[in-house]
Amino acid sequence: MKKIILTGDRPTGRLHLGHYVGSLRRRVELQNSGEFDKIFIMIADAQALTDNADNPEKIRQNIIEVALDYLSVGIDPAKSTIFIQSQVPELAELAFYYMNLVTVSRVQRNPTVKTEIKMRNFEANIPVGFFCYPVSQASDITAFKATTVPVGEDQAPMIELTREIVARFNHIYGETLVEPEILLPTNAACLRLPGTDGKAKMSKSLGNCIYLSDSTKELSKRVKSMYTDPLHLNISDPGHLEGNCPFIYLDAFCRDEHFEKYLPDYKNLQELKDHYTRGGLGDGTVKKLLINILEEELTPIRERRKQYEQDIPAVYDILKRGCAEAREAAAQTLAEVRRAMRIDYFDDAALIEEQARRFRNA
Ligand code: TRP
Q1: What average pLDDT does range 307-322 have in this prediction?
Q2: What fold, for 216-308?
Q3: For the chain, how far is it from start to end, CA to CA, in angstroms?
Q4: Which of the four pLDDT bands, split at 50, 70 and 90, describes residue 201?
Q5: Residue 70 near residue 41 (C-beta atoms within 8 A)
Q6: Whose alpha carbon is nearest atom 2 of ligand 1?
Q7: Which residue(s) pair with 8 in the sheet?
């Protein structure tokens, strides 16, 4: 069986370090591993509209931001197909059929949807489209016969639902769709990178993000104001690592060779942590190390972004070509789905023959 990746993001803002360690960095590795036959990366504008119906301009503006973020981290349009969800209408048709295979109570139990409803204060006013987005996400994945979906942990319930829809579809209509596997980060810090305030995950509305496109100055400001250990008042005090942002970020970003380069008094992160918990190590030193490491990681990303920003029409061209390619793949699956469901009436000569006979003999 072919190995195919489908993954994507809602274009509601620029992408940040949470996206980067949670999934973007992995996508680039997978892309360059050569292990996959096809890689599709989707800008999920239709899904973003499910809770932004009154603000389509926000989505429209952010499509290019997300595309630039993809290209700048090293998604290579020669190896991966980047496309925009709404430009592949086949996805909407698939979702329309899949909705019949899922119960309302099943979607109501989805923990990610539950959290989102709370965060948006929807309560009794949930848009139907928003409620159904997990089903539409199953279309996004299955339309490309994806075997592998590299995403953050919050997306696990969607992949689970997709697997259920696939099983149910194949059971009713015959083996047609492919069950995907989720691919999660292996490192706990990457699984759920907290915001710079130490709270939950990065979120634009909380103002606790570090964006991939942040300047050196912005980055340094955000690291310097990071939440650390409120009990660590004097350098000599023993420090606590739990919930300590700079250390969590170091878990996600730092490698042994960084110490040789930026902080040769220590061999590795464990030695630094030990000193901190013992007492005698200031937050400033830890933050300085983190700034150096993040700068090293983000500099090539910023530079690549600058280059693409010089030719925005070319970026739209990349997206347009990607959409055409994605549409072709999705149309192929849709044709198979229609055939399996036996709603391909005009391509079904036996059906027409059978009906003709029935009425001739009547
Ligand atoms: N729900 C994803 C997010 O919020 C975006 C998305 C839409 C997606 N369709 C997908 C991710 C299909 C993976 C596969 O970021």
Answers
A1: 98
A2: Tyrosyl-Transfer RNA Synthetase (1.10.240)
A3: 48
A4: confident
A5: yes
A6: 9
A7: 42
In whole angstroms, give the CA distance from residue 218 to residue 224. Answer: 10
CA 349 to chain centre: 43
Domains 4-192+312-352 and 216-308 share a fold: no
Query: Does the beta carbon of 137 sit less than 6 angstroms from any atom of ligand 1?
Result: yes
27 lines ligand 1 (CB under 6 A): no
Confirm or reject: Cβ of 148 under 6 Å from ligand 1.
no
pLDDT band at 188 (very low <50, low <70, confident <90, very high): confident
Q: Is 41 in the pocket of ligand 1 (CB under 6 A)?
A: no
Ligand 1 atom with least separation from CA of 152: 15
Atom of ligand 1 nearest to the CA of 137: 9
Instruction: Just give the CATH number of 4-192+312-352.
Output: 3.40.50.620
Domain ranges of the chain: 4-192+312-352, 216-308
Q: Per-residue pLDDT tens for 99-137?
A: 999 999 999 999 999 988 888 888 778 999 999 999 999
Residues ≥6 apart with Cβ < 8 Å to 172: 101
Which one, of 176, 171, 98, lies nearest residue 135 by Cα?
A: 98
| Cα 133 to middle of ligand 1, angstroms | 9
pLDDT digits (tens, 9 = 90+) for 298-307: 999 999 999 9
Q: Please indicate whether residue 46, judged by its CB atom, sits closer than 6 Å to ligand 1.
A: no
121: left (phi over 0), alpha (psi -120 to 50) or beta: left
**Which of the four pLDDT bands, split at 50, 70 and 90, describes residue 199?**
confident
136 in contact with ligand 1, CB cutoff 6 A: no
Q: Confidence band (pLDDT; 50, 70, 90) for 168?
A: very high
Q: Both tokens of residue 1?
A: 């069986």
151 lines ligand 1 (CB under 6 A): yes
